[in-house]
Amino acid sequence: MLKKKQFGSNFIWGTAMSAFQNEGWATADGKGESIWDKFTSGSKLIKNQDQIGNASNFYKDYNQDISLAASLNFNVFRFSISWSRIFPEGIGQINKKGVDFYHQVIDSCLNNGLTPWITLYHWDLPQKLEDRGGWTNRAIIDWFSNYVDFCTKEFGSKVKHWIVINEPMSFTGLGYYNAYHAPAKSGLNNFLKAAHHVTLCNAIGGRITRENVSDAQIGMALSCSNVKAVDKRSINKRAASRVEALLNRFFIEPALGLGYPSDHIPGLSLILKYFEEGDEELIKFDFDFIGLQYYFRVVTKFSLFPPVLFATEIPPKDRTKNLNAMNLEVHPKGLSKVLNFYNQYHGIKKIILTESGVCYPDQIINGEVNDTKRLRYHQKILKEILKAKKKGIPVDGYLIWTLVDNFEWREGFSPRFGLVHNNFNTQERIIKQSGYWFQEFLK
């Protein structure tokens, strides 16, 4: 039986959320437009043509949700800052009401006994900056540095835990390579430019935070997957190693001084044309922790497309019935492989599982949500964390995605990850069985 004490007295227990997916009120109190505001506005690309509206209303109901997290006995509340709520045009004039809002969120955390963790960038780039090239424009180093400098000086006396950039592979790949996410750019050159500038900003943002916040704990949050070849043939095993290099190595290795993993993906050497003098040193940063974000397994095989990678995923629905509501393979045991993989790197001081969760449909019966499958998923993840800790892998926390059901990017409102059910029409919250389990477990 799982017991809290097995994880140690210093283990971090929390939840994670993002500004765009939860806050709503996209134009309230002087907020500027973000790339996701534009991408979703009246869009037929969003599943069921969902319109985000006020999302889960966190902009108005933040105190209620933070109190909910405290009532479930978590000790950390991770949230992100909307860049365009602070700087409506990305740079220049500051929106005082936006600044005040995040002070209120931080104070609510502290008043409820929760340690606030801030993510500085969780995908919602100001649209005014995207109009100037966004992450493909090297000028973003200055834009981002200015934003980080302001936030860390403004909030650093009250917040000591900072994640610079959330899941760089996700938003550069989906937003700048295959146009599936905002800002809907495509092509290898757009991806490589954006990825290199993100790598630079991740490290530079870390250095700015270190300078501005005394006793700061600074991390990067990486999406990661358990990658498996479809069979033992060498051509498919090599394809899997290329996919793993892209998904699991691409952003960690530059920070550690190892450069980009062009050893497994020779085509990645094309990124060197976007280097300027000094970049090899600028992309390095000694993070205090690495945040890993684990959701699914990827099974791959050799393919002529896409070129450079020469690998493709076997669609999960063609190989397993163990799927979440987004048709991704649910595979908690794969977390062990991922933790072992990252533990091989010298220079990683500690690992926090800064996101993991699963989406299944909720059914309300007599005012209750008995989400047994979601609860079992989290219990299995906890068992994998325990196995890793017993091996000496420094896994020091688990931040659940997520507290309250929210807007899941292009998938709209359908995927429900929360420990708390949300009626998006009324904003009524119902704690699910999984939430009550954590409340008891964390006593």
Automatic annotation (TrEMBL):
Keywords: Glycosidase, Hydrolase. The keyword Hydrolase applies. It comes from the Bacteria. Pfam families: Glyco_hydro_1. Coiled coil: none annotated. GO terms for cellular component: cytosol. This is Family 1 glycosylhydrolase. Belongs to the glycosyl hydrolase 1 family. GO terms for molecular function: beta-glucosidase activity. GO terms for biological process: carbohydrate catabolic process.
